[in-house]
């Protein structure tokens, strides 16, 4: 399997060659040159498999440059009940992403049972093992520099902790994260993990990462890399749980299923789109946004209008607070018949902060065949839905999953099971749970008192030169 750029001006690459990088050299995103098609016989055989074996079957179609025995071992080491142990609602950890039944035909799928209680662990844990494997093979090293306001940074640190040839330098805004989030990240004592609390806002931290990223000489000399949401391996890993969700929500492979996905950067639902293109019987993909509704607007109107940071709200489902959706270009590439010239033309606008409008085009007329619908949820909807799920189903939802359930209930199809992807646990969003329910969310036993553990963090001013020096001093 080779990978091509959505903008068409980059040489096709093998999986391991795009694993450690970000964008293609032409500014596009990598996608497989074709989507492997799943036969009915495969689907029948896969229904019986464990999560790890299912992951191997699916990933081996996309990863053809790692020997089968090695890929099998990597996947088996990643998807274990020990790593994804934080089940709630009686879910079976051995299933890795078990369903919680809310009522007949309505489920949540637990994607947040990993070490950081958010769905980013599903892909990031595999990425950590893939990085270590490929770097060992090649005798190379990577130093990951990132900025986080919470979820992504902690998922990256837990995935990379203790890995050979990998160091992580993670910038976070000093004093701006919850005590639980700080404890999650800063209590890691692994020597290859460096937490830098920057005395500023998240944007200041992100600006430093951008400045370093623009310094090509520094990057090359110090082997600086990133683990951002456009990484193809992350999307590929996420395809697996759509198959697992289908098998758990249906009795036979004659049935169809629908998924609702709380969305921000379009990474999660992009994997659902690819699962459907491979032949998984998905009747409908429901995209849910919060107040930052750039994607809901597109799927309703055909207009994609990236927002400025001033137009981007800080909400109580913060992991969906995006101004533009970094993975969306992958879907548009498919929508326009995989014509890179069209993508180049559209993103010439997006990259200048301008909107594009497909509503009057032949491309838009093809939307129905992709089976997307969308909806939006606000803070009030979120609070109401958390109360509703607790009262009606005795299930406590986090704020992102509540956005999902709100939009799912508006978009069910008769006779088709609806699976709402649960992207985080309520324990991560105590303040909103208190507001909605007047109680504290349940926290997994092994994370109780995590705030009292010793922390390992340095506080630094948002000064690019000083932070570059810190990195160099710790290589
Ligand atoms: C990252 C994240 C999302 C959004 O996922 P995308 O892949 O960016 O669409 C939703 N919920 C939670 C809890 C997240 O951490």
TrEMBL record:
Its cofactor is pyridoxal 5'-phosphate. NCBIfam families: thrC. Its EC number is 4.2.3.1. Residues 2-79 form the Threonine synthase N-terminal domain. GO terms for molecular function: threonine synthase activity. Belongs to the threonine synthase family. Keywords: Amino-acid biosynthesis, Lyase, Pyridoxal phosphate, Threonine biosynthesis. This is Threonine synthase. The gene is thrC. InterPro entries: Ser/Thr_deHydtase_PyrdxlP-BS, Thr_synth_N, Thr_synth_N_sf, Thr_synthase-like, Threonine_Synthase, TrpB-like_PALP, TrpB-like_PALP_sf. Pathway: Amino-acid biosynthesis; L-threonine biosynthesis; L-threonine from L-aspartate: step 5/5. Residues 97-337 form the Tryptophan synthase beta chain-like PALP domain. It catalyses: O-phospho-L-homoserine + H2O = L-threonine + phosphate. CDD domains: Thr-synth_2.
């Amino acid at each position: 399997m080779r990978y091509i750029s959505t903008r068409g001006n980059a040489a096709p690459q093998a999986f391991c060659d795009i694993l450690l990088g970000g964008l293609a050299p032409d500014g596009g995103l990598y996608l497989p040159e074709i989507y492997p098609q799943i036969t009915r016989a495969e689907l029948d055989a896969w229904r019986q498999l464990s999560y790890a074996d299912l992951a191997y079957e699916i990933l081996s179609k996309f990863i053809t440059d790692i020997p089968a025995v090695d890929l099998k071992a990597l996947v088996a080491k990643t998807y274990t009940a020990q790593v994804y142990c934080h089940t709630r609602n009686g879910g079976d950890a051995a299933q890795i992403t078990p369903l919680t039944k809310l009522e007949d035909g309505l489920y949540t799928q637990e994607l947040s049972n990993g070490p950081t209680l958010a769905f980013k662990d599903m892909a990031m844990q595999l990425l950590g093992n893939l990085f270590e494997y490929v770097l060992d093979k090649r005798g190379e090293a990577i130093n990951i520099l990132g900025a986080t306001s919470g979820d992504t940074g902690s998922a990256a640190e837990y995935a990379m902790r203790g890995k050979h040839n990998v160091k992580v330098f993670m910038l976070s805004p000093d004093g701006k994260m919850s005590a639980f989030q700080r404890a999650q990240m800063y209590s890691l004592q692994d020597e290859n993990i460096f937490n830098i609390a920057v005395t500023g806002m998240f944007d200041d931290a992100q600006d430093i990462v951008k400045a370093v990223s623009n310094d090509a000489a520094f990057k090359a000399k110090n082997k600086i890399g990133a683990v951002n949401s456009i990484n193809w391996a992350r999307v590929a890993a996420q395809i697996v749980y759509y198959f697992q969700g289908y098998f758990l929500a249906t009795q036979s492979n004659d049935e169809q299923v629908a998924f609702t996905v709380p969305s921000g950067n379009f990474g999660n639902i992009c994997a659902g789109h690819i699962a459907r293109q491979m032949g998984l019987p998905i009747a409908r993909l429901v995209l849910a946004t919060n107040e930052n509704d750039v994607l809901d607007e597109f799927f309703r109107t055909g207009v994609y209008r990236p927002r400025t940071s001033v137009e981007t709200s800080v909400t109580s489902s913060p992991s969906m607070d995006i101004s533009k959706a970094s993975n969306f270009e992958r879907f548009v590439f498919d929508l326009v018949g995989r014509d890179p010239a069209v993508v180049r033309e559209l993103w010439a606008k997006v990259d200048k902060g301008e909107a594009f409008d497909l509503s009057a085009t032949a491309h838009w007329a093809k939307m129905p065949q992709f089976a997307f619908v969308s909806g939006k949820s606000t803070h009030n909807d979120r609070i109401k839905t958390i109360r509703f799920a607790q009262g009606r189903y005795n299930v406590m939802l986090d704020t992102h999953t509540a956005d999902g359930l709100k939009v799912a209930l508006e978009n069910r199809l008769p006779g088709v099971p609806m699976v709402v992807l649960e992207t985080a646990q309520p324990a991560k969003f105590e303040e909103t749970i208190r507001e909605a329910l007047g109680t504290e969310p349940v926290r997994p036993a092994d994370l109780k008192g995590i705030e009292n553990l010793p922390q390992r963090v340095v506080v630094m001013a948002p000064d690019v030169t000083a932070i570059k020096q810190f990195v160099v001093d710790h290589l």
